[in-house]
Each structure stands twice: as structure tokens, then as C-alpha cells.
Design goal:
Blueprint: H1 4-21, E1 29-30, E2 49-56, E3 61-66, E4 72-76, E5 82-86, E6 96-101, E7 109-113, E8 116-120, E9 125-128, E10 142-145, E11 160-161, E12 167-171, E13 189-193, E14 201-205, E15 213-215, E16 222-226, E17 238-244, E18 249-250, E19 256-257, E20 261-262, E21 280-284, E22 288-293, E23 307-311, E24 324-331, E25 334-342, E26 345-346, E27 349-350, E28 354-359, E29 365-369, E30 374-380
Parallel strand pairs: 14-18
Antiparallel strand pairs: 1-6, 2-30, 3-4, 4-5, 5-6, 7-8, 8-9, 9-10, 11-12, 12-13, 13-14, 15-16, 16-17, 17-21, 19-20, 22-23, 23-24, 24-25, 26-27, 28-29, 29-30
Length: about 375
């Protein structure tokens, strides 16, 4: 039984938190001059594909989610704002940009569900109800959950709702390589809970850090990218593409990396055969983040159900790698990993870093870039 004083204390803390966010959830429309469609000639794509700016001046654009009315919401890792982008005339360029949330702690994760926008901070989940009808005057935030770990290392969140109606929330390892899950099983995992914050549980274990996942359009199985550990050299371990068809699976971290390399510290008395191997090995240290199965009709049929992956790019590899959009598709029952779009790394210097991908209702694909402060749109038109 909760004592009255405890109930009062919790209420006051919630009110205080809301007041800190409070008035910043007011009208924050930026009536910038309508931008013309501008393509990016430096980005190389397969024939027939085109890339242009969907929105610019979106500071630190990170995770993306789509509202019922076509509003694109973008989270933020380095800053404290969450954006809403609206393409009113459906010409592939956002007409309006709203700041629907300010003053948050690393609001990287955003997810849309039943008319509400869910926002993930390091340790808390908030909800903005009926958000698309109130972009210029966002409602007071509702605190959904505030019991996530507060560690900031790999603490930023990517969140999404699964076919089961549950909100999936990863909790990264609070280090480069450690076994903190022995103290708190939520570390290095993917968790889930009901939309109201109840029923919290760990769904998958041994996941060092995932900042992107999606569900297979046919099997409804969870697939996710995973960033491999550092300080084992330039070429190992590979980043991973994994799938978790059921609860309780363990994907190896920190005992085994990329499915076949035992960790020199934690894997000495262990075997990789004890854990679930990746479906595909991605590039080493490419920082594979957002991923989406393509289910639209704009792209050629060869891309149906293929996985698009945003590779943020290596940060400490002697020769940079990543900074691109890659593709994984099944060919003859085996995954084939290939480059789809590249050019953000020019003359060994990066001018952009892809973070997340989002399919729009017309079948085009958005890509966020937290370095260039932009969101791009990839479309297809047969030449």
C-alpha cells in the first residue's frame, strides 16, 4: 500500500517534471520560406533513384516516425527538441516545421501510436496525445514510464510499436564492453511494455546497442541492427543484423561478437554456439542505426521486403567506413549486403551522417542526418 506522503511526493515530482517541460510545449512554428526541391548530386544511387532535401535546418535530426496524417516527427540526440515536419502540398518538400517538445534529456526516440507521439529520454517515456491536431499548441505531456536506467553511455533510445501493440525500448550497455547485465538484466537488451507503461519486461538479451529495428512484413518477426564493440581492431567485430522471432533469445554480447568471435575477456570460458548468431554481418564499425523493411510500391519490385539500413559511420577506425545507406535482401534464401546510396563521405571527410530511414505513404524513403541537420527524400522514377 502506498502511503499518502509517498503518493504526494510522487505527484509533486511528476508536476515538477512537467513544469520543467511546461510552457515549452506551446506554439513553436517556424514559418521559413517555402524551399524549392533541391537534389543532392554528390550522392550516388542506382539508376532511376533520386535524392533531394525533404527538410533543412532540422538541428540534429535523428529517429523518425510517421503520423496518420503524414506528419513526420524527428527526435534529437545532442539537443533537447523534438520536431514535426509537414508537407502540406505533397510535393516532397516540408512546408512547415514545428518544435513540439523542448527541454528534454536526449529525446532521441519517437514513436506514433493511436494518435499520440511517444518520446523517449534517457530514463523516461512521455506521451503527447492527439498531437497531429495540435502541432502549433502541443498538449501537456503525460508521463508514461520513468524507471529506465539513467546511464548516458548508450542511453539514447530508439523506440517503436510492434505488431503486438507493445512499445519496444532498447537499453544499451553502459560501456564499450562490460557485463553489467549481471547486475541489471535490462542492460544490453531490448525491452517492451504496454502503451500505458505497464507490463515492462525484457524481450531480448545480449544486445550491446541497437538504435534501429523493424518487423518483417510477412512473419512479423523483430529484426534489428546492433553496433559491435570497439578496441578489437579496424576490421572486427562486424556490426550485425539480427532477428528475434521470440522472447528470451540471447545474442551474445559481451561473450561473443558477430556470431563467431569470443570476447578476449568475457568469452574465455564460453562458446559462440551458445548464442544466436546474426542473420548478416555488416561492415566493421559502420555504426548501423535505423533500418526499415520496404513495403511500398514506388520502388521496383526487386526492392520489395528489402531492408534499408542507415550507417552513421565509424568514429575511431583508421580508415573511415559507413556514412551511407546499405541494403540487405534475400537472394536464393541467403542475405545479400550491398551499398544503396553513398557520397556523404567525400575525400575521406564526412559532410553528413545518415541516422534513420522512414517510408512515406507514397512509397518514397526519408533519411535523417544529424550532422547536416537535414532530412532527405529518396524517390524513384524510371528514366
Amino acid at each position: 500500500m502506498i502511503q499518502p506522503i509517498d503518493r504526494m511526493r510522487k505527484t509533486l515530482l511528476t508536476i515538477a517534471a512537467m513544469c520543467c517541460l511546461g510552457t515549452v510545449y506551446s506554439c513553436n512554428y517556424h514559418p521559413a520560406k517555402k524551399q524549392k526541391k533541391q537534389e543532392l548530386p554528390d550522392i550516388k544511387l542506382p539508376p532511376g533513384f533520386h535524392i533531394s532535401y525533404f527538410a533543412r535546418d532540422v538541428s540534429g535530426a535523428r529517429s523518425l516516425t510517421l503520423g496518420d496524417k503524414g506528419t513526420v516527427f524527428a527526435g534529437n540526440r545532442e539537443g533537447s527538441d523534438v520536431y514535426a515536419l509537414v508537407d502540406e502540398d505533397h510535393d516532397g518538400v516540408a512546408d512547415k516545421r514545428y518544435v513540439v517538445a523542448k527541454g528534454l534529456e536526449t529525446p532521441n526516440g519517437v514513436a506514433y501510436h493511436n494518435g499520440a507521439l511517444y518520446i523517449a529520454e534517457i530514463s523516461r517515456i512521455w506521451r503527447l496525445d492527439d498531437i497531429e491536431n495540435n502541432l502549433s499548441h502541443p498538449p501537456r505531456p503525460v508521463l508514461v514510464y520513468d524507471q529506465l536506467p539513467k546511464e548516458k553511455h548508450h542511453g539514447w533510445k530508439y523506440i517503436a510499436f510492434g505488431p503486438d501493440g507493445m512499445l519496444y525500448i532498447p537499453v544499451g550497455a553502459p560501456c564499450n564492453n562490460c557485463n553489467d547485465a549481471q547486475y541489471d538484466q535490462r542492460f544490453a537488451s531490448i525491452c517492451r511494455m504496454k502503451p500505458d507503461g505497464t507490463g515492462f519486461e525484457v524481450f531480448a538479451h545480449g544486445v550491446r546497442n541497437t538504435v534501429g529495428f523493424d518487423w518483417h512484413p510477412q512473419t512479423k518477426e523483430l529484426w534489428f541492427t546492433e553496433n559491435g564493440r570497439d578496441q578489437m581492431g579496424d576490421d572486427i567485430p562486424a556490426d550485425e543484423l539480427n532477428k528475434a522471432p521470440q522472447k528470451g533469445m540471447h545474442f551474445g554480447y559481451p561473450f561473443c561478437h558477430q556470431g563467431d568471435i569470443t570476447d578476449p575477456e568475457f568469452g574465455k570460458n564460453d562458446f559462440c554456439e551458445n548464442y544466436t548468431p546474426p542473420v548478416a554481418k555488416l561492415g566493421p564499425h559502420v555504426a548501423a542505426l535505423g533500418m526499415k523493411f520496404y513495403t511500398g510500391n514506388m520502388f521496383p519490385t526487386a526492392y520489395k521486403d528489402a531492408i534499408f539500413i542507415a550507417e552513421h559511420g565509424s568514429w575511431n577506425r583508421s580508415e573511415r567506413i559507413g556514412y551511407r545507406i546499405t541494403l540487405v535482401r534475400q537472394t536464393g534464401g541467403k542475405p545479400v549486403y550491398e551499398v544503396f546510396a553513398e557520397g556523404w563521405l567525400k575525400d575521406k571527410k564526412a559532410w553528413g551522417r545518415p541516422v534513420d530511414v522512414l517510408q512515406l505513404k507514397d512509397g518514397s524513403l526519408l533519411v535523417s542526418d544529424d550532422m547536416a541537420n537535414a532530412v532527405y527524400r529518396i524517390s524513384y522514377q524510371k528514366d
